[in-house]
Amino acid sequence: MSTKVAIVGASGNVGPAVLEQLLVAGFDVTVLTRSDSDKKFDSRAQIAKVDYESFDSLKDALANQDVVVSTLNVGAVPLAIHSRIIDAAAATGVKRFIPSEYGCDTTNAQAAKLPVFGDKVKVQEHLKNTSQTSGLSYSLLITGPFLDWGIEKGFILDTSGPVVTLYDGGEQRFSTTTLNGVGKGVVGIINNLDSTKNIPVYVEEARVSQKDLLRLSGSKIDTQIVQTVDLEKGAFEELGKPSPNPAVFATKFILRSIFGEGFGSLFDPKKLSNDLFGLKPLSEEELRGLFAN
Ligand SMILES: NC(=O)c1ccc[n+]([C@@H]2O[C@H](COP(=O)([O-])OP(=O)(O)OC[C@H]3O[C@@H](n4cnc5c(N)ncnc54)[C@H](OP(=O)(O)O)[C@@H]3O)[C@@H](O)[C@H]2O)c1
Hints:
Layout: E1 4-8, H1 15-24, E2 28-34, E3 46-50, H2 55-62, E4 67-70, H3 79-91, E5 96-98, H4 109-112, H5 118-133, E6 137-142, H6 147-152, E7 163-167, E8 174-176, H7 179-191, E9 199-202, E10 206-208, H8 210-217, E11 222-226, H9 228-239, H10 246-259, H11 274-277, H12 284-289
Parallel strand pairs: 1-2, 1-4, 2-3, 4-5, 5-6, 6-9, 7-11
Antiparallel strand pairs: 8-10
The structure holds NADP nicotinamide-adenine-dinucleotide phosphate.
NADP nicotinamide-adenine-dinucleotide phosphate binds next to strand 2 and helix 6.
């Protein structure tokens, strides 16, 4: 009998890639989506329309599931909803919960202090507490910034001109993973439940700097340097306003944690689960190909 996996929020930036990899891996997949959402999903998955405000609605949707994978937005989706999904998973006997992480190492003490990761840290605490009083365990999938998505959106390198911004000089290397790589990381956890129990799990497909990416892009445009310490300062200033704009402060904090010193953005090779999961680094040619479109 194949493992029953519920994915919550499968329609956003990272959700579709995770859903695809879960289906490719042959799991019995159910997508949880808001009852008023009109999103369409792969017909191989079952769909459960839920009311995230209702514990009973979530319990019904998660009954008999082995694993719950959250790809919900963190920040826009209130913390109470993330906690309620965890509680419903514990109440129905789900074995493993994979919360919506997929980015910076929020277990790094310096990163964990950044307000943008506050809800992720609170979800981790809730999972730790729940795991001590129920059969629910958890795995935190840490992937670094999304490489293909980050290039497409101009988030980790924006070569659309007239100048490209290099953070702190652009030489700091960081671990990064494509959307499909994130999906493979989730599958790897589900296929290795014992060795990934109640820990952060690190995967990467490249260890690159912005200068490496600029060279791979072939772009010859001018560069400017922005210091991430100033971004952090600007993020706190934005937070201090009466109506802070999350798009402004969240972006600045996240750039600080990817490119600044001390945030753990280049993963310790000894901690990587790549070999266990069969996830290979991208070749130079594959990296160049990310800039082809
Ligand atoms: N490392 C990176 O570079 C990177 C980049 C982006 C995101 N991330 C991480 O990936 C995770 C998912 O982020 P995302 O950008 O993929 O999320 P997203 O696209 O903003 O949202 C994901 C899904 O959540 C559901 N949703 C949205 N608002 C909701 C609400 N108010 N109540 C209930 N459900 C709601 C929607 O599904 P339905 O409409 O089907 O209900 C939506 O498709 C986060 O942890 C984020 O930090 C990492």
